[in-house]
């Protein structure tokens, strides 16, 4: 039972191209020892669970945790323990108490759900698991295990790489911990599948928005052969030129086109934004930026109508 330069730009974007869910929600970046993937949360469907999960993400409580359970063909599980080397210790993270069960979505391959204590449907706290297979049997167990999001795009390649690691019995209830290149003691941090999480953005909203209070611009862009992407820019200069820079931590893939979507031409390096909203209204039209520093992912304003 489950317990609780254009070349650089192109290379960066090409990592994120496969299609994802069309359900709009918060996107969380998950960085692991074997690579990173993104999770799109079902904010509207499971609001209690999503709010609880984001409380841990935004509080940094998942950072430095490790995947503590692997059941091949079933799940990987995390969100519970941090490892320290001297002396070798696995310590539980702070938790905020139990949440109400919100079973709405089936436990299919690639979905993320909350773990809980057997016999108590409303016992989920911090521990989560990713389904490695279509585990619909979990839909009727313990009141149904609450699915609250799904792995996006090609992210299951990373999850499957974790699932391919050998599970090791470390004792003290940790009987199936996936370890990296571990053959003998001492157990070190580099042997663990370490995890860090942060919010990357959302998959809803208008195609292009600038927020003066933060100096940030968020766009949903059609980048041609590079795919459909959500991109966040930071305003880094206003004099003598307006320059913006991509924040790689806020870059993630999209599935669907939308009306008025900005376009990036990878051949010319030009980004064209049909309408840019500021404070809820269209403030500028046909905004044109040019990629002027590919190594730093910096764009310079060419003009606007």
Give structural attributes.
mainly beta; Cyclophilin; about 300 residues; 9-stranded antiparallel beta sheet; 2 domains; 7-stranded mixed beta barrel; 22 strands; 3 helices; elongated
Fold blueprint:
Blueprint: H1 6-14, E1 26-32, E2 35-41, H2 47-58, E3 65-66, E4 69-71, E5 75-78, E6 81-84, E7 89-92, E8 111-114, E9 128-131, E10 147-151, H3 156-163, E11 167-168, E12 177-178, E13 194-202, E14 208-211, E15 216-222, E16 228-237, E17 243-246, E18 252-253, E19 263-265, E20 270-278, E21 281-293, E22 298-303
Parallel strand pairs: 14-20
Antiparallel strand pairs: 1-2, 1-13, 2-10, 3-13, 4-5, 5-9, 6-7, 8-9, 8-10, 11-12, 14-15, 15-16, 16-17, 16-18, 17-22, 19-20, 20-21, 21-22
Structural account:
There is one protein chain. The chain has 305 residues and is mainly beta. The chain has 2 domains: 21-200, Cyclophilin (Beta Barrel), CATH 2.40.100; 205-303, no CATH class. The chain has 3 helices and 22 strands. The chain has helices at 6-14, 47-58, 156-163, and strands at residues 26-32, 35-41, 65-66, 69-71, 75-78, 81-84, 89-92, 111-114, 128-131, 147-151, 167-168, 177-178, 194-202, 208-211, 216-222, 228-237, 243-246, 252-253, 263-265, 270-278, 281-293, 298-303. It is elongated and about 65 Å long. Mean pLDDT is 92; it is low at 5-22.
Quick one: how many beta strands?
Answer: 22
Radius of gyration: 21 Å
Strand content: 35-45%
Average pLDDT: 92
Structure described in brief:
The chain has three helices and 22 strands. With 305 residues, the chain is mostly beta strands.
